[in-house]
């Protein structure tokens, strides 16, 4: 006898609820135990029904998904987040390394998310990611955190503590202000889009620096100096923009 996976849907759009429900009902190993359009009612029912995972709309009529998650002392269920576009919410997901579905999503996108839930249902490896998500959504940019994952550990790092990120083919090494290095098995370009809006700048094909830590620019060697000690090469094509930024600072 196969054990089915239980799902609860938190959604205040009737059409979106019907759409997701119809897809899940055709997924052989899953069944829906309930739904709600209110965070308070949903929290009460989820605590009672104890589903294996939930589909959670980020913005609801009586609050948001982050208000909802704070109603739980412990989160013992997987979550598929859904959201319409809101930049600050999207960024929060990217930095926490959690998946989300952007509305309107296609059937195959939800099925891919369901496949992942089914595969990872017994894994307990994203409580730190949820914590980071809540932190980033609730706090200002100066305390924003990012999750850096590798084979050995899941590192939660405050952005202002990053000196630079260095490319090494399909890997990226992050150097922190305490001299700690974190190697991540993703290329530098995957972090470029995330970090540039938060005071980072791609000074070279191989380097993404944190502009907060600039000490000076060495014109002779065409290097930017970070925290008085770390020299990073600057590409000719990036030099003008960097100098203009430094002139604005000083």
In terms of structural class, how would the helical and strand content be classed? alpha/beta
- The parts where pLDDT drops under 50 for at least 5 residues are none
The SSE order reads EHEHEEEHEHEHHEEEEEHEEEEEH
Q: Compute the separation of the termini in Å.
A: 70 Å
**What is the mean pLDDT?**
85
Number of strands: 17
Largest sheet: 5 strands, parallel
User: How helix-rich are the residues, as a percent range?
Assistant: 25-40%
Strands of the widest sheet, in order across it, are 2-1-3-6-7
Q: Roughly how many Å is the radius of gyration?
A: 21 Å
Proportion of beta-strand residues:
25-35%
How large is the count of helical segments?
8
Global geometry? elongated
Oligomer: single chain
Structure in words:
The chain is α/β, with parallel strands linked by helices. 27% of the residues are buried. The protein contains eight helices and 17 strands. The strands form five sheets. It has a five-stranded parallel β-sheet with strand order 2-1-3-6-7, with helices on both faces. It has a five-stranded antiparallel β-sheet with strand order 12-11-10-14-13. It has a three-stranded antiparallel β-sheet with strand order 15-16-17, with no helix packed on it. It has helices at residues 14-25, 39-49, 65-69, 87-96, 107-120, 127-138, 189-195, 236-249; strands spanning 5-10, 30-36, 53-57, 59-60, 63-64, 78-83, 100-102, 145-149, 154-158, 162-168, 171-176, 181-184, 200-204, 207-210, 214-218, 223-226, 230-233. α4 (87-96) packs antiparallel against α6 (127-138). The model has no long low-confidence stretch (mean pLDDT 85). β16 (223-226) and β17 (230-233) form a beta hairpin.
